[in-house]
Amino acid sequence: MSDSVLLQTRQGGVLTLTLNRPEKLNAFNDALVHALIDGLQAAATDSSVRAIVIRGAGRGFSAGQDLEVFVERRNSPNKLSVAEHLRDTYNKLVTIIREIDKPVIASLNGIAAGVGLSVALACDLRIAADNSVLTLGFSKIGLIPDGGASLMLPALIGLGRGLELAWSSDRIDAAEAHRLGLVNTVVPAAELEERTLAYAERFASVSPVAVGLTKRAFNASVLPNFTAWLEAEATFQEEAAAGPDLMEGVTAFLQKRAPAFAAR
Ligand code: T3D
Hints:
It contains twelve helices and ten strands. It has about 260 residues and is of the alpha/beta class.
């Protein structure tokens, strides 16, 4: 296996981008986020790429922000604020996913958590292995869903069910995710790779003009203020990160104990 944090493979018109930090459940560090942005930007201008799959190596899609890296960043003297970091990383990533005129499909194999789930929700379509587990996880570390999830989640499943998942950080399995409308289709785990390719090929063979304009039309109808919303989300996240709950939540996770959030 390559030591690159992002692997790229091509099968016909389908480009597959594989998050490759399996020893960390593909938790994001900045190198992985920027490699993914670069891969998507290159694909945007390559007319031979007709559909893009994002998947994770190993036993999960992504565990979200790497929390050990987050603590290092937080303790560094020239640290970016949480809002600045969102602007420099996840907001750029989900913006290109929404703006690229091609189908972007998340292939979920196991865990998708935190901003890992947000990235999957920003994709156009989601195909999930039947052993997948989805959780927002942000509330456990005193944050709000970011990476566009505070917009994509209610857009996909509605306000009440979205808030329930955001506040509870419940882990839901693939069948429940399908019932809620969070994923388009569920397949046996052993068949995920071949079924994902076949699924992507269906959309890779549609008129690219129709595909691109349909995506723009749907973006305009359901997500007309996506970019402005990401900025608002970053501002809310900065406020959440200003109090003690974030570091209590992250420390509790890394120490494998339950967080203690005081009343305020
Ligand atoms: O400024 C900013 O960057 C703000 C942006 C924030 C964006 C975010 O994504 S915030 C949310 C970050 N993610 C999480 O909070 C998820 C934390 N992880 C979990 O809740 C669970 O680990 C999972 C649900 C992902 C998986 O559970 P499970 O039971 O399958 O595995 P596990 O035993 O909990 O984890 C396996 C290992 O992965 C474990 O390490 P160990 O004990 O084997 O050495 C665990 O610590 C590690 N791990 C899991 N998630 C992360 C992680 N290490 C670093 N960062 C992680 N996010």
